[in-house]
Write a structure and sequence with these properties.
By secondary structure, this protein is of the alpha+beta class. The chain has helices spanning 6-13, 18-26, 119-126, 152-155, 194-201, 233-242; strands at residues 4-5, 30-32, 35-36, 43-44, 51-53, 56-57, 65-70, 100-101, 110-116, 134-141, 158-159, 164-165, 170-176, 180-187, 206-214, 217-218, 228-230. The strands form 4 sheets. Strands 7, 8, 9, 10, 13, 14, 15, 16 and 17 form a 9-stranded mixed beta sheet that branches. Strands 3-2-5-6 form a 4-stranded antiparallel beta sheet, with no helix packed on it. A two-stranded antiparallel ribbon has the order 1-4. Strand 2 (30-32) and strand 3 (35-36) form a beta hairpin. The structure holds uracil (URA). Uracil (URA) binds at residues 105-106, 109, 193-196, 209. Uracil (URA) binds next to helix 5.
């Protein structure tokens, strides 16, 4: 793990803002390996150095990353006055109060949601520059077999109501019937209701929507709606690599 400035280390632990923790340093209340440290730009190795404040060990915690299978009926937010949020699944100890969901799924959308404390990764995954693919399994109304989806891979689609042309997207048809069709649709933008709007424009409104992939990260089939698990090292490494981190 990278070395960190002592003021960041202490602030990340929750001992106050950078300004506040600098006071602790100035007051000579902070030691690293039993030596008083006053300089806020002093670097510590979180894996090896013993940092204490008022003689109490301050154990640095790495960011945490959970793969969550969001159930329908929960909004993607950290708090809400009237609706239950996805964070209700993460309220008990040891879940950090710094956790938040990355991106947004509609209240009735299920599937893959990343819940983390890592603001930098979240910011990059959401940034259009990185073109992160988001794949959804969707059940849509009616038979889509006569639509030529290939052209949308080059030019996207113009959403008349929004007066907006989407970025290119891909569709794979899994099954069709006169009543409904099953598709996999892959988009790279996070615009509000994007999949529902695309399928509405095509005359096949979404009946059911579930996110199954974010970039290289696939929803674990063993997770029931409402269940989550930590990302494996391999999953995290691939995800970070996708946005040029570490
Ligand atoms: N597109 C939608 O329409 N809804 C979602 O929840 C995600 C993508």
């Amino acid at each position: 793990m990278k070395k960190l400035r002592i003021d960041k280390y202490l602030a990340d632990f929750g001992l106050g803002s950078r300004k506040e923790v600098r006071k602790l340093l100035k007051q000579e209340r902070v030691t690293v390996n039993d030596q008083i440290v006053k300089n806020p730009s002093f670097h510590v190795n979180p894996k090896e150095d013993i940092v204490k404040v008022d003689n109490e060990v301050i154990q640095y915690k790495d960011n945490v990353y959970y793969m969550f299978n969001k159930p329908s009926g929960y909004i993607t937010a950290t708090s809400d006055e009237s609706m239950p949020t996805v964070m209700e699944f993460f309220t008990e100890e040891p879940y950090s109060s710094k956790l938040f969901p990355v991106g947004r799924l509609d209240i009735d959308t299920e599937g893959l949601l990343l819940i983390t404390t890592d603001g930098q990764l979240a910011h990059r995954l959401a940034h259009p520059k990185w073109n992160i693919e988001k794949e959804y399994y969707a059940v849509v109304k009616g038979d889509v077999s006569d639509i030529d989806f290939s052209k949308f891979e080059k030019e996207g689609i113009y959403l008349k109501k929004d007066k907006y042309r989407t970025k290119p997207f891909k569709v794979k048809v899994l099954s069709t019937s006169p009543e409904k069709s099953e598709i996999l649709i892959t988009v790279t933008e996070g615009k509000y209701h994007i999949v529902k709007k695309i399928m509405e424009e095509l005359g096949h409104p979404v009946l059911y929507l579930k996110r199954v992939r974010i970039g290289p990260l696939k929803l674990d089939k063993n997770l029931e709606p409402g269940e989550f698990r930590e990302l494996s090292e391999e999953e995290l490494k691939k995800l970070k690599k996708e946005v040029n981190l570490e």
